[in-house]
Specification:
The chain is of the alpha/beta class. It has three domains: 7-213, no CATH class; 225-315, Translation factors (Elongation Factor Tu (Ef-tu), domain 3); 320-442, Nucleotide-binding domain of ferredoxin-NADP reductase (FNR) module (Rossmann fold). It is 52% helix and 14% strand. The chain is built from 15 helices and eleven strands. A five-stranded parallel beta sheet has the order 9-8-7-10-11, with helices on both faces. It has a three-stranded antiparallel beta sheet with strand order 1-2-5, with no helix packed on it. A three-stranded antiparallel beta sheet has the order 4-3-6. Helix 2 (48-71) runs antiparallel to helix 4. It starts with 6 loop residues before the first helix and ends in a 6-residue tail after the last strand. The model is unreliable at 1-5 (pLDDT under 50).
């Protein structure tokens, strides 16, 4: 097998590397700037506790800027890292904000208590009567609530729609945080340059958020005027929705990507779900295929023909643009077959293709007929792996994978499915020493 040398692939790879380098420089320069502001700000921290509290406050504000940029759905970040990895970072930055939001006021309160030589409780009560502090404490409470509902135990008990609605509180936190800084931002009021830098940074982040999450989606949906063209049941709990509109050839969507879908008039505005394209975009229509799990997905089969559709996207780097080899292995589990099926239909797929489709039984293999037809047209090998996973049936162990695909290390591998399946496959690929640049996976854990 030989590496892909198509100019488009090389361009995408170089673009991603340049974007990653630029983002790294952006983070480093801002961290240095924050440290310099802290060093030259001087009083009124008064003591070590107050100084630590002020430094933590600066890093808390910057962490919020980073979080805003992560949820802004910036195309440059999507192309460089992929939405799945960005969502993982969103989670960890969220936990970082949580701890900074707890520690920042704690050190400030202790600092004032030591300076005034009064109890911590009395200092906390005194400070809590001030408007900026009240707003900050409300923001901290909301952060605690969002994080508490994001831990795995709580997350499993919430529907996707409820979890997403809770995360909309992040916008309230950002608003309160900005107001709090207007009152308490002594560290960046050193001179005109520090003020311009700090508020310029926030203006950039908020501008990116408004552009990526509001302005661009509104313009695209006004241009394309998406409507439901057909609703096709695929099985007892799986349905495909065909969407048409104007000038869809101008929509920059690729096979393997997903949109955030809303259906105004059928669902409430905050009910949104990330559904992959289950067919390669053809410039005339889009198709999503979903399993009825949450409120939105379960109600898709009741969508009336002609219903309005509001789509935000496309998102995701789970595309053939990131391929590095001529041979490809596509692995899907359950409803994770949707982006895999669209990749198999992509005209750029070419080369030697193997598809592994893991389901409990053939009856549950959604879109199987389409997969078989596409595999025949593409000359691909399709393996439908059924049965309950157990000692005698572990298809994604390293030896099992290599038995099915002996040249697996010479292929790009695309994986989409439940977390357990994806984790097992990725672990085996590492043990088989498949280069990380050849491994591509997608999971849907979007929050805000």
């Amino acid at each position: 097998m030989t590496a892909v040398t198509h100019p488009q692939v090389i361009t995408v790879r170089r673009s991603a590397l340049a974007a990653r380098a630029s983002i790294g420089v952006f983070l480093l320069l801002n961290l240095v700037a924050i440290q310099l502001m802290f060093q030259i700000a001087g009083p009124p921290a008064h003591n070590l506790f107050g100084s630590i509290g002020r430094l933590l406050g600066l890093h808390l504000a910057f962490a919020m800027v980073v979080q805003i940029l992560l949820i802004a759905r910036l195309p440059v970040l999507d192309r460089a890292f992929g939405m799945d990895r960005l969502t993982g970072w969103h989670r960890w930055v969220g936990f970082t904000i949580f701890w900074l939001a707890i520690l920042h006021p704690s050190f400030v309160i202790v600092g004032f208590a030591v300076y005034d030589k009064v109890s911590v409780l009395r200092t906390a009560l005194t400070l809590s009567k001030q408007l900026p502090v009240i707003l900050g404490l409300i923001a901290v409470g909301l952060i605690v609530l969002v994080v508490a509902l994001s831990v795995r135990i709580a997350r499993r008990r919430l529907s996707y729609e409820t979890w997403h609605a809770v995360h909309l509180l992040l916008y309230v936190v950002v608003t309160l945080g900005v107001i709090h800084q207007l009152y308490e931002g002594t560290a960046f009021r050193i001179n005109i340059w520090t003020e311009v830098y700090w508020w310029g940074l926030w203006a950039f982040a908020l501008g990116a958020l408004l552009t990526g999450r509001l302005i661009v989606p509104l313009i695209r949906n006004a241009r394309h005027r998406l409507r439901v063209a057909a609703v096709v049941p695929e099985s007892g709990d799986v349905v495909s929705v065909h969407v048409t509109g104007r000038d869809l050839d101008r929509l920059p969507a690729r096979a393997g990507q997903f949109f955030l879908w809303r259906f105004p008039g059928h669902n409430r505005w905050w009910q949104v779900n990330p559904f992959s394209l289950s067919a390669a975009p053809n410039g005339r229509s889009l198709r999503l295929t979903a399993k009825g799990i949450g409120t939105t997905s379960a109600g898709l089969r009741d969508l009336p023909i002609g219903a309005r559709v509001f789509a935000e996207g496309p998102y995701g780097a789970f595309t053939l643009a990131r391929r590095t080899r001529t041979a490809t292995l596509l692995i899907a589990g359950g409803i994770g077959i949707t982006p895999i099926r669209s990749l198999l239909e992509d005209p750029e797929i070419g080369g030697d293709v193997v598809v592994l489709y893991r389901v409990r039984s053939t009856a549950e293999a959604v879109l199987l007929g389409e997969l078989r037809n596409l595999a025949r047209v593409r000359g691909a090998r399709l393996h439908v792996i059924t049965g309950k996973t157990g000692p005698g049936n572990q298809p994604f162990r390293p030896d099992s994978l290599q038995s099915l695909v002996p040249d697996i290390t010479d292929r790009d591998v695309y994986v989409c499915g439940p977390a357990a399946l994806t984790g097992a496959v990725l672990k085996s690929l590492r043990e088989l020493r498949v280069p990380s640049r050849q491994v591509h996976f997608e999971a849907f854990r979007l929050a805000a």
